Amino acid sequence: GDSVTQMEGPVTLSEEAFLTINCTYTATGYPSLFWYVQYPGEGLQLLLKATKADDKGSNKGFEATYRKETTSFHLEKGSVQVSDSAVYFCALNYGGATNKLIFGTGTLLAVQP
Amino acid sequence: DVKVTQSSRYLVKRTGEKVFLECVQDMDHENMFWYRQDPGLGLRLIYFSYDVKMKEKGDIPEGYSVSREKKERFSLILESASTNQTSMYLCASTPVGRGNTIYFGEGSWLTVV
């Protein structure tokens, strides 16, 4: 079946460091890919998405490229801030009538000043 | 802005109690979901609904039921709460269609003692 695999956390970085959080997927079709972020004590918010191969999603300095050949959707940011500390979830879905999301296990990012 | 509202943020219930978690969305979305979030396991789908009075089991439906009598409201019911149902519960909604964003509520922290 379909699945999403993320790198295990926690990831601890100093402010202004470069961030990469790896995400790979297994899919039987051609899904859309998403990154969601969960700040402490809150629900999940969409960070960015890509709906087809070679699309790049970007938001708030974060970006990820849909790589069909490597089945990956790695999240990157050039310079992290303390306010980026959160849990990041990679996910996929196919849309359609039900639009279910399949999530990875989440990666905790802690940014230190 | 889309709003998904979970009526209870923090609940403490006793083993064996019947528990209702309520979720309301204000954007006329067809699809609504209940997820459970646990450390190291990510988000797991309990139930989803693609229309009024329509529901389907997700990955972990045992011990739960749902009700969708109106399009905007999706309730999760724990018929007889148990300590292994202590968790964070997240409601979400989305319109039908590929690549559409799924919107989450802020979550309900349930502790069963």
Q: Supply the number of helical segments of chain A.
A: 0
Order of helices and strands of chain B: EEEEEEEEEEE
End-to-end Cα distance of chain B: 37 Å
Mean pLDDT of chain A: 92
Mean pLDDT over the residues of chain B: 92
Instruction: Quickly count the helices of chain B.
Output: 0
Strand % of chain B is over 45%
Assembly classification = heterodimer
Please state roughly what percent of the residues of chain A sit in beta strands, choosing from under 5%, 5-15%, 15-25%, 25-35%, 35-45% or over 45%: over 45%
Q: Kindly provide the radius of gyration of chain B, computed on alpha-carbon positions and rounded to a whole number of angstroms.
A: 13 Å
Please provide the count of β strands of chain A.
12
Helical content band of chain B? under 10%
Order of helices and strands of chain A: EEEEEEEEEEEE
Short description:
Chain A contains no helices and twelve strands. Chain A has strands spanning 3-6, 11-14, 19-21, 23-26, 32-38, 44-50, 56-59, 62-65, 75-77, 86-93, 102-103, 107-112.
Describe the structure.
The complex is a heterodimer of chains A (113) and B (113). In chain A, 0% of the residues lie in helices and 50% in strands. Chain A is built from no helices and twelve strands. In chain A, strands 2, 5, 6, 10, 11 and 12 form a six-stranded mixed β-sheet that branches. In chain B, the strands form two sheets. In chain B, strands 2, 4, 5, 6, 9, 10 and 11 form a seven-stranded mixed β-sheet that branches. Chain B has a four-stranded antiparallel β-sheet with strand order 1-3-8-7, with no helix packed on it. The interface between A and B is medium-sized, with 25 and 29 residues.
Describe this protein with a few key phrases.
heterodimer; A: 113 residues; mainly beta; six-stranded mixed beta sheet; four-stranded antiparallel beta sheet; 12 strands; 0% helix; B: 113 residues; seven-stranded mixed beta sheet; globular
